[in-house]
Amino acid sequence: MIRLVLALLIAAQTLTDLQRRAESGDRDAQTALGTLYETGDGVPLDPARAMALYRDAAAAGHVGAQINLATMYLDGAGVPRDAAAAVEWLTRAADRGSALAQMNLGMIYESGDAPVKADPRQAARRYRAAATQGLMPAQYRLARLYEAGRGVPRDLDQAAMWYRKAADQTDPAAQLRLGILLSPGNGKRTDVVEAHMWLNLSASRWKSEALRVEAAARRDALEKRMTEAQISDAIRRSLRWQDTVGMQQK
After folding, report:
1. What are the 10-residue block averages of pLDDT along the chain, 250 residues in total?
2. Superfamily of domain 93-167
3. Most exposed: 3, 72, 201, 208, by fewest CB within 10 Å?
4. Does this model's pTM top 0.70?
């Protein structure tokens, strides 16, 4: 799951001040202090203390605390592992409009994290709620469901649309999948120039060596089916994307 971390510790603020604010009922301070105790950042590692702080803030409706509390329940940190409780707190946060909570709920429903039963339709619904708010991992996961036809009718146009949204946020996994989808023989209208562009971008961004090699190998194989003019066009598009969209995401 993805955890929310609040950046409340500004230079002028001491740990003592943060503790004072938390004790006075400041929900942001409780959540920030809980994060410190959960990670052992500047304080002794104390998951139980983190859980207590998160629970106080979560019960008062603090979305960040609700998400972090759910994460601890799912990880079994500080309390017995309880996926049902995690879903309960994430649902509260999602009902307040949190894209991150929607995303995490989708992951639970997609995986079927016991005792929660796998529900691809519910996963797709939650991913879509987060994806429409621009959350990149949700866009990628929703695209995968559309590509596979899990929880939604198989729709390669929808898959390509959501992959493209995530790809434009510099997600190399989405760039790879979009490049594959646009390549010949993958069930969607072929566009070798755009496919090459995305594969080339993906190959230049992967931190995983194995996946970088896959993107580069697919790009190089695709070049054998392209003219010199098409390859040049694809490279120009890659450079243009890096100079415009790519730079905006840095």
Report:
1. 52 73 95 92 92 96 96 88 93 96 96 89 98 98 98 97 96 96 89 97 87 95 97 97 78
2. Tetratricopeptide repeat domain (1.25.40.10)
3. 208
4. yes
